[in-house]
């Protein structure tokens, strides 16, 4: 029972409102919508409320149109097949626009192509936008999605408004973020992150629509204006490109906000010092026992540090020791499709811990007044890699998506179930299967049933081991940070870094095999510093400096570790069983955090576990020495290569501390 109004937009005339009351929205929001209605020229406006009724209505329509297929085996679950040309994030078409180039990208060596973000000048960006957006929603409905990243109204939470012409996006946003009319109340006259998304396929369509999935792959452009807190995504409906709360907002834009708030704090220092100068002959000086400048600076720098926070590509999980009842939380940063979701939902293979998930992809981290690093998960759902997921590897994920979930580019069994590579033992061998490309297929036949980057989208609240505090507005305290990637050779299962600075240098040198999460073909080993290469919101050198600056009193910085679940033997077989057995590694990590001595051995790259201290119960034969070897010449090559990478890609922006750490590591390796 929505009132129907028309909003009158210059040049366009009245635009019918299919749902919602435009005139009750905050003024700034009305202006924002009117501007984009004017540009995009949708045929109607639909103001979303995030309700179940809303999702049901949209689902009903999409099933009728053939966009979604009901998976009858489960409750309220649907399959979506995209245009096969729109299946992953597109890094080459992702841009950030700032006045000053080096705010966004580092000083890359001449003649080298930068890989840590792409900068575009504001006028060029304007031109690209003008080439795409005018009239881009003709014949389509513009959905207005008010969403909160983090619990609505929470101290670390942030609000975004997404305009989109994709109802699939609306459905997924309803799962992945908190969409609610309460967002309007919380927002009031406040600022919000402006998100504009179009599939770039106005009606009448000129490009053939495949699978009822309108998109415009040739013209994709994922653009960010961090200063304006604005995201404009065109041409793709795929998750990482279109669910703008996720990578675009919660990583790229949020990392800039996090940095800016740190800078804001530097202004506070400056103004406190300025005031101090003015009061040189004033009466307050004696209060500070003659150390006024020192005291003022100290207080101000505490404020500064308190304000600086981080937006990272990290899972968050809690591990409760069943004997002591003590619980510790950790964060881990792995590149896309390298094991975050699986680790976060871990089902331990050995007793000892109760493991619960707080988040599986993004962490916003901030030090509290006591100096404890706290993390929140800004999302409300999981957008997880389907292949490889089964009741053995990740039972918690399987249980999470038995209802109210959307599956994208997976295969379908004849009895209305989902199917993907990795489910061979859980489906009848003779079952008829329809692949993601709509071809008939059976287990054992050539080719793949599901796209390697096929995904499930499921509400986090349905996860059997979701942590009771997962929506705690102030977040959970973090004891360890873990970096990792897919490293088939040379890199041990786990090592502990020597210090915060050493840990940051290890993070800066993270590398991993390319995966299907983005457009790269083949399995080349790529640099993915801090697992943030595709998601850097600003100059990576400044980002490293921001990390290094966080180590200052009263901050209790967590220990930093590096893991690698993916080392292989000569036959190419994984040396480590992974998944539920990763608890054994986390057990060692937590014991190190608790200060346990005698369980670690020093190597040039960090501490590794002593075999006798590591839980190997029921593991069968493990090639321990191969799993933990640190080949001297491999590592010397690796460090030279990493230095070259930093010289080429980050140049003069690399903080000196990082060079010092790398030099010391090289020295330790030479002495091996
Ligand atoms: P995310 O994108 O970082 O969240 O990665 P996922 O947790 O979704 O995992 C991506 C792929 O890696 C999936 O196919 C998983 O089955 C696989 N994977 C995850 N953890 C492990 C592990 O410990 N060992 C092995 N061998 N594969 C893993
Ligand atoms: P993930 O994220 O693979 O890091 O979970 C999704 C994406 O890369 O689009
Ligand atoms: Mn994931």
From TrEMBL:
Cofactor(s) named in the record: Mn(2+)
Enzyme class, broadest EC rank: lyase
Residues in Phosphoenolpyruvate carboxykinase C-terminal P-loop domain copies: 309-668
Gene Ontology CC terms, in alphabetical order: cytosol
Record's keyword annotation contains tRNA processing: no
Keyword Nucleus in record: no
SUPFAM superfamilies for this protein: PEP carboxykinase N-terminal domain, PEP carboxykinase-like
Top-level taxon of origin: Eukaryota
Pfam families found in the cross-reference section: PEPCK_GTP, PEPCK_N
Gene Ontology process terms (BP): cellular response to glucose stimulus; gluconeogenesis; glycerol biosynthetic process from pyruvate; oxaloacetate metabolic process; propionate catabolic process; response to lipid; response to starvation
An annotated Gene Ontology molecular function: GTP binding
UniProt domain Phosphoenolpyruvate carboxykinase GTP-utilising N-terminal: residue ranges: 31-259
Keywords noted in UniProt: Decarboxylase, GTP-binding, Lyase, Manganese, Metal-binding, Nucleotide-binding
EC number of this enzyme: 4.1.1.32
Quaternary structure and partners: Monomer.
HAMAP family: PEPCK_GTP
Entries under NCBIfam families matching the protein: PRK04210.1
Family the entry assigns: Belongs to the phosphoenolpyruvate carboxykinase [GTP] family.
Protein name according to UniProt: phosphoenolpyruvate carboxykinase (GTP)
Organism from which the protein derives: Mytilus coruscus (Sea mussel)
Taxonomic placement: Eukaryota, Metazoa, Spiralia, Lophotrochozoa, Mollusca
């Amino acid at each position: 029972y929505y009132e129907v109004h028309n909003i009158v937009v210059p040049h366009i005339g009245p635009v019918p409102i299919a749902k919602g009351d435009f005139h009750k929205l905050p003024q700034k929001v009305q202006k924002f919508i009117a501007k984009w209605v004017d540009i995009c020229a949708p045929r109607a406006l639909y103001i979303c409320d995030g309700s179940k009724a809303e999702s049901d209505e949209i689902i009903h329509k999409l099933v009728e149109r053939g966009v979604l297929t009901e998976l009858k085996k489960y409750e309220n679950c649907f399959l979506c097949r995209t245009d096969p040309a729109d299946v992953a994030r597109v890094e080459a078409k992702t841009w950030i626009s700032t006045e000053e180039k080096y705010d966004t990208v580092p000083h890359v060596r001449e003649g080298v192509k930068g890989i840590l973000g792409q900068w575009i000048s504001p006028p060029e960006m304007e031109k690209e936008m003008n080439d795409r957006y005018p009239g881009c929603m003709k014949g389509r409905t513009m959905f207005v999605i008010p969403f909160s990243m983090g619990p609505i109204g929470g101290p670390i939470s942030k609000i975004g408004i997404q305009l989109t012409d994709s109802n699939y996006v609306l459905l997924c946003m309803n799962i992945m973020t908190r969409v609610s009319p309460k967002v309007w109340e919380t927002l009031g006259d406040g600022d919000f992150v402006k998100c504009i998304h179009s599939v770039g396929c106005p009606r009448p369509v000129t490009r053939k629509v495949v699978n009822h999935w309108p998109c415009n792959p040739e013209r994709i452009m994922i653009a960010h204006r961090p200063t304006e807190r604005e995201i404009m995504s065109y041409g793709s409906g795929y998750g990482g490109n279109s669910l703008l709360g996720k990578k675009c907002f919660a990583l790229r834009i949020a990392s800039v906000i996090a940095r800016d708030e740190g800078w804001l704090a530097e202004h506070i220092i400056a103004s406190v010092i300025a005031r101090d100068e003015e009061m040189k002959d004033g009466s307050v000086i004696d209060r500070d026992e003659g150390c006024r400048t020192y005291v003022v600076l100290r207080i101000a720098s505490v404020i500064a540090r308190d304000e600086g926070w981080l937006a990272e590509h990290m899972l968050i999980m809690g591990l409760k020791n069943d004997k002591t009842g003590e619980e510790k939380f950790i964060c881990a940063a792995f590149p896309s499709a390298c094991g975050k979701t699986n680790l976060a939902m871990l089902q331990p293979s050995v007793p000892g811990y109760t493991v619960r998930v707080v988040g599986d992809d993004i962490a916003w981290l901030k030090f509290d007044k006591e100096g404890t690093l706290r993390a929140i998960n800004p999302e409300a759902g999981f957008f997880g890699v389907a292949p490889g997921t089964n009741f053995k590897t990740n039972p918690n994920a399987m249980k999470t998506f038995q209802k109210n979930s959307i599956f994208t580019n997976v295969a379908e069994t004849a009895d209305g179930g989902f199917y993907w590579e990795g489910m061979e033992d859980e489906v009848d061998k003779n079952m008829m299967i329809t692949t993601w490309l709509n071809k008939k297929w059976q287990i054992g036949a050539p080719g793949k049933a599901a796209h390697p980057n096929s995904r499930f989208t499921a509400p986090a609240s349905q996860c059997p081991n979701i942590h009771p505090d997962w929506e705690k507005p102030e977040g959970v305290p973090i004891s360890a940070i873990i970096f990792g990637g897919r490293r088939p050779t040379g890199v041990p299962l786990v090592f502990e870094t020597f210090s915060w600075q050493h840990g940051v240098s290890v993070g800066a040198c993270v590398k991993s095999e390319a995966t299907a999460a983005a457009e790269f073909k083949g399995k080349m080993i790529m640099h993915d510093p801090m697992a943030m290469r595709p998601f850097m919101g600003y100059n990576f050198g400044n980002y490293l400096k921001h990390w290094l600056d966080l180590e200052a009193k009263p901050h209790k910085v967590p220990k930093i570790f590096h893991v690698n679940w993916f080392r292989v033997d000569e036959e190419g077989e994984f040396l480590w069983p992974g998944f539920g057995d990763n608890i054994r590694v986390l057990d060692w990590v937590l014991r190190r955090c608790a200060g346990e001595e005698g369980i670690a051995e020093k190597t040039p790259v960090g501490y590794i576990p002593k075999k006798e201290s590591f839980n190997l119960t029921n593991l069968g034969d493990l090639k321990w020495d191969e799993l933990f070897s640190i080949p001297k010449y491999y590592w010397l090559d690796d460090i030279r290569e990493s230095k070259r990478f930093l010289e080429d890609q980050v140049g003069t922006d690399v903080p000196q501390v990082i060079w010092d750490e790398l030099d010391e590591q090289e020295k330790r390796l030479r002495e091996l």
